[in-house]
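User: I'm curious whether this sequence folds into something compact or stays loose and floppy. Could you predict its structure so I can see for myself?
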Amino acid sequence: MIEGLHAGFERKFPGELPIEVMFHAPRRDAAITVLFGPSGVGKSTVLRCIAGLDRPDIGRIEFDGTVWHDSEEQISVPARQRRIGLVPQEYALFPHLTVAENIGFGLFRADDAARDKRVAELLDQLALMGFEKRRPAELSGGQRQRVALARALAPEPRLLLLDEPLSALDMPTRLRLRRELRRWIKATGIPAIVVTHDRQEATSLGDELVVMYQGRTVQQGPVNEVFSKPSGAHVADVLSVETVRPGTILARTNGLAVVEVDGVALQVLTIGLPEDTRDVFVCIRAEDVILESPGERPASPRNRLPAIVLDLAREGPLVRVDLDCGFPLSSLLTAQGCEELQLQPGSRTTAVIKAPKVHLIAR
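Assistant: Here's the prediction. I'll summarize afterward.
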């Protein structure tokens, strides 16, 4: 038996692209699998089908060897029998119930003593002690999120599903809770599937990444691997890779290649790229571009590109620097780094990119 969730199904809607998915959400080490993609690609529908709240038209869903849905065998296990904990986007807390009553809502089969014990455990685990008699309207956004998570965990589910769990929060709260949410989920020992369209949430929360594009799953793998090595230009676009430019391989030697991009030569690694590939897309993430003063002494990186600063834009604690180095390029720096380099529109700098940080996709 292969552990975890295996989903391969299709869901059709009149006048819309069908949703077609094929992915595995592992259970090892309480893995968190992120279902990632822009709004409208069907991520929430996939979650509803897994939860048993919607039914695929074709295909199969299996968890730990138990079939939850099989269209050919006409099997469809009801949602209540799948033992899934679901945290919806808006949390859907009962406004007339207290925190303790919301958490204990799914424990209707337990006696009073067992229910009170489980509620107390979750109040302590999610730092909600002292709030048990409050109602949702008396809580902050972060507190409501923790109550929704506690309610989903109360019946001790086999799988946890979270649909855009941070989207209802203001930005400062969202930033603070990203790492805390991962820690809380990991502490449960329960595998989870998280839906998000936010790149920072995906990298902060996930172990495994499943990318959706136009209703289909198009790539899966460890989070860092997928973000650094998209399988196609469309995947790079979904992952918001800042620089994706057509290029041509001019020469290859011992796993290294010289690639021309808009007249600029880059040295890159070609591991895994077919030997006969000549035309490529060159992908460079902003966080992999280091900026230095023009006269700074060369270090080990192979690519050092003279650049002109076009624009600077603040993004939370970082600053995005748009550059012209013969082709458009972006870099992410701290505000202090920008000040030290005295960067401003029109100033000159040097963009440094290590060869392994340039990813090639055959085109």
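Summary: Residues 171-188 form the longest helix (18 residues). The chain has nine helices and 21 strands.
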